Amino acid sequence: MHYQRPKGTADILPGQSALWQRVEATARDILARYRYEEIRTPLFENEEVFSRSAGDTSDIVTKEMYTFEDKGGRKMALRPEGTAGVVRAYVENKLYGPEFQKPYKVYYMGAMFRYERPQSGRQREFHQIGVEAFGAETPAIDAETIALGRDLLMGLGAKSIRVVINSLGDPESRAAYHEALVAYLTPYQAELSHDSQVRLVKNPLRILDSKDAHDQEIVKGAPKILDFLSATAQQHFTAVQDLLDHMGIAYDIDADMVRGLDYYNHTIFELMSDDPVFGGGYTTVLAGGRYNGLVEELGGPQTPGIGFGMGVERAMLLAAGQVPAPHVPVYIVTISPAATATGMALASAIRQQGFAVDMDYLDRKAKAQFKTANKVGADLVLTIGDSELEADTVQVKAMASGEQQTLPMSELREHFAQVYAQAKED
Ligand code: ATP
Ligand code: MG
After folding, report:
1. SS3 sequence, 216-240?
2. Could you say which residues bind L-histidine here (predicted)?
3. Which among 193, 266, 271, 185 has a CA at the least distance from the CA of 225?
């Protein structure tokens, strides 16, 4: 029987995993510069956590969510995105309390699950690195979040990034826009895709995000949200732009951008790349926005929030390049079965001193073992044969110089760091 991995998933193998670790380490470093700390929430939640936050007309919830009933009859879902679980944790752990510094800034890294048609840059299990900042309403944190997104992508190796922003306004702006949008779309009702006909009743704003080509054609002539911003919303959006200007971050405004999740308001943004690895055109690698009503929606106190999610698989394409296989500084060659036990004890002692050591576990001939030592790029080869066993010594060869010496086992163990440093110097 041959099993295959589930459709839309990937095995991250040694070699590739080194690249993942590098991306994650770079991200952690950049996130720390912005004072974000890591939060880890469950890979699954009560289904309602997602349907209440992402919105029960969003594609993510209606079409893409992995839902299941557990043996206790609870409706659960694998997380399709990171924000809902973090907000749930924020509320449940009362992280809005006065003992916590505001804005409360957290990041997450991990797997997300969406039942989508797999294609390049689109998987069913994929990974996101995302941030959430709670408790700050000022445009300054919007601009900082966008700056962080840009720093992340540039830090990971993007050559140029296109920043696209829009504002979805406050509830007042949304209400006014909603009315105008429905008035515009209603005459096209019959022409809209089936999905969008449903959206027209339930959530017309969603239609702006339709992937259907004819819907998109119709949407081109629709009224623009930016013409319906309240004075407060307009002020906020202008301030974000001023701050981006001050920080020297170029951006485009796209009045048709709405984002796939229902919880956004005010500033939303996407960071895109036209790197050739994406096969032409702009691809969104990182996307987010402000969600001022979401904490309340999940049962917490009125708390503003803003965040983004970055697709790690897509960011990895930008990071590309190779991470060389790690070299093994010390290799132990054992020439008789009797030497194996002594070699293992020596390996263990050296590892405890902080060095990576490898040896032969296949009872191969000395020649084959030396070949492996060369292949893994060992700086130091330690050989134990019958005569060494008898004399309680070890043959020590510095590979760079080819110099050999025989050292008493006790001396080698005691002064290993010195012997190693000497071998590297030679
Ligand atoms: P799209 O319009 O491409 O479906 P989205 O709006 O669903 O994107 P978000 O929910 O905003 O995407 O997720 C943020 C980022 O996560 C995306 O920009 C992308 O880099 C990544 N992402 C989303 N879905 C997938 C997926 N199925 N496979 C790989 N990466 C994904
Ligand atoms: Mg999607």
Report:
1. HHHHCCCCCHHHHCCHHHHHHHHHH
2. 81-83, 114, 128, 132, 259, 263-264
3. 266
pLDDT at 426 over 80: no
The residue type found at 401 is S
CA of 115 to the centre of ligand 2 (A): 10
What is the Cα–Cα distance from 226 to 404, expressed in whole angstroms?
76
108-132: per-residue pLDDT in tens? 999 999 999 999 889 999 999 999 9
Kindly report, residue by residue over 373-418, the tens digit of the pLDDT.
999 999 999 999 999 999 999 999 999 999 999 999 999 999 999 9
Residue 309 backbone phi and psi in degrees, to 5: -125, 135
Lowest average pLDDT, out of 158-167, 204-213, 243-252, goes to: 204-213
CA distance 422 to 64: 59
Burial 31-57 (b: 16+ CB within 10 A, else e): beebebeebebeebbebebbbbbbbeb
Q: How far is the CA of 170 from the centre of ligand 1 (A)?
A: 25
Domains and CATH numbers, the chain: 16-170+230-319 (3.30.930.10), 330-425 (3.40.50.800)
Going from the Cα of 61 to the center of ligand 2, the distance in angstroms, rounded, reads 10
Residue owning the nearest CA to atom 9 of ligand 1: 287
Burial of residue 197 (number of CB atoms within 10 Å: 0-12, 13-18, 19+) = middle
Given a cut of 90, whether residue 259 has pLDDT beyond it is no
Q: Is the CB of 85 inside a 6 Å radius of any atom of ligand 1?
A: no
Torsions phi, psi for 198 (to 5 deg): -65, -40
- Please tell me if the CB atom of residue 289 comes closer than 6 angstroms to any atom of ligand 1: no
Helix axes 139-155, 312-319, angle to 10 degrees: 50
Whether 339 lines ligand 1, by a CB cut-off of 6 Å, is no
Q: How far apart are CA 26 and CA 107, in angstroms?
A: 14
Q: Is 309 in contact with 288 (CB distance < 8 Å)?
A: yes
| Structure confidence at residue 62 (pLDDT) | 86
Q: Is 309 in the pocket of ligand 1 (CB under 6 A)?
A: yes
Phi-psi region of 69 (alpha: psi -120 to 50; beta: other; left: phi over 0): beta
Q: Is the pTM of this model over 0.85?
A: yes
